[in-house]
Fold these 2 entries.
Entry 1:
Amino acid sequence: MDIIFYHPTFDTPSWLAGLQQQLPSARVREWKEGDNQPADYALVWHPPVAMLSGRKTLKGVFALGAGVDSILSRLQAHPDMLPAGVPLFRLEDTGMGLQMQEYAVSQVLHWFRRFDDYQALKQQAQWQPLVEYRREDFTIGILGAGVLGAKVAESLVAWDFPVRCWSRSKKDYPGVTSFAGDDELGEFLRGTRVLINLLPNTPQTVGIINEALLEQLADSAYLLNLARGVHLVEEDLLAALEKGRIKGAMLDVFAKEPLPTHSPLWQHPRVAITPHIAAVTRPDEAMAYIARTIRQLEKGEKPGGEVSLQHGY
Ligand code: NAP
């Protein structure tokens, strides 16, 4: 079995060695420009078109992250990048769920305990206890209730917050109120105090967090964008912050990354920023997951994690 690997920033030698250890009978190599030798599986992130083009005999392509937008967005211009019948897999959780939980819980607690307000008071050397927020006024709404959305929901339920989620299909997660489809988006938004975005990047979700959506949230709402920059219309967020519709935002992802130095988001006192690190690929978990999936495919089984090309995630 031949496996080709390409990632623009990962430590390729350690991935090749790790994969080799997980799949001792496989021949694992780094893909380089001009390599047209046969391969059974391709492990990729932002792959050059030439790496996958026309490889009709591939038994599977693995995206080395949870999102597959970087591959699917190029399929229209280069349809032979994923020849018909070649399944595309992505990483499901592989350690990212816990990281998303850490990120979301710490920031929700930060806002709930009014540490943002106390930080502002500190700037003015003011000693002033504030009215406590109540959990019943602090409903958390999670856009996207898949692998990562479900994990985040679970952790916030454990902290006793009212939690709701929005997805295409209805969910039955303990302690979580589920809303599904465009018809129920308005109801989901009304009463949501903290909006957490964990949607995939698809044509239906681009620009979804815009003025019209932000207007529907509870007063003095907060936004946590953990998914993709294209989901958020950044100018609409800035306007909503100015109007006081939105009290604070924490953003991990941006329309343009790295976030340009001239972006007003950098200077905004009520916007916190991290550089797309909410949940990174953990090599050991990811390699074990990929190896397990390949073994299942080799046995003719149907593993999880296959991307629906029709739905785009
Ligand atoms: P997932 O399991 O595929 O979950 C996606 C969720 O979104 C599902 O609940 C799905 O509904 C819902 N959804 C998709 N399209 C929708 C639509 N048009 N309307 C309503 N709901 C819709 O994905 P995941 O593994 O949780 O990952 C989510 C995203 O997080 C990834 O795509 C990636 O972009 C992002 N991410 C970011 C980082 C970071 O470091 N910032 C790290 C990892 C992942 P159904 O359940 O009904 O299908």
Entry 2:
Amino acid sequence: MLTKLSVIGGKASEDLARRLSRKIKANLVKSEVRIFADGESKITLSGELSKRKTIVVQSIYPPVDTNLVQVLSLISRAKEKSSEVIVVIPYMGYARQDREFLPGEIVTMKVLGKLFKGAGASKIIAVDIHSMVGLKHFTIKTKNVTAIPDLVKYFKKLSLKNPLVVSPDQGGKDRAKEFAKEFGTEYIALEKKRDRKTGKIQIKTKNIDVVNRDLILVDDMISTGGSIVKATQFLKKQKCKRVYVACTHALLMNDAEKKIRRAGVTKIVSANTIPGKTSIVDVSSTIAKAIV
Ligand code: R5P
């Protein structure tokens, strides 16, 4: 067994795990996954694990439950070999289920807390978790790091005209504020209403002055694209110039990307917490800083 740090790269986060292992000079252990006909994951690790500390890296994006079971299995194996198991969940699926919004709803983040602990995790590191409320349900150590400085670095390279940072909703106001501060510009937050039963989204903000300005819509995640589409349609009506999107987690379910482009977005820029076409901002250095 190694004394050096090990990183286990889950199948959902192979590239990020490889980058992270290089940054922290750890031994990378890859996982091979075979999905059985009934949907079960058969995981095989190749390589030795540190007896001191192992870092498991796996995002929980779709197929969410499959990736969740895989990360729990990786944690469990890591704990058999290493005394400390740090778990990096770059994208935390279920983070939006952090409270009982409607009577009877199950707070699945509470369940995740128990599962991670039970599997053997010593600490969880998330990136731009939807809300800190989710991590409050965990009884092991947790840390949330932000991709905002990495995203801002990318946007600073673009020549934007009189840029303004916009949050599509009030819930994202602090995120937009942080982005704007790092970027050195102003920010605003729109008023969004989502029907909790139908999922229908409406922008309630009336008129704002964004005429001829380049806008950066900042959000933690894009799932169906509904929030970004509605916000972009509204902002275009207000006669803004170009609309860019900066988000940490681009799930871009179904035809979300197409809908967003059709609404008039010039470019979507996301972090590599979820691999994909738009995931051009690397957060491995930010995660590395939280580990060492
Ligand atoms: C909502 O509060 C979140 O910050 C995101 O705006 C939302 O989850 C994105 O989902 P969708 O792309 O489906 O609108």
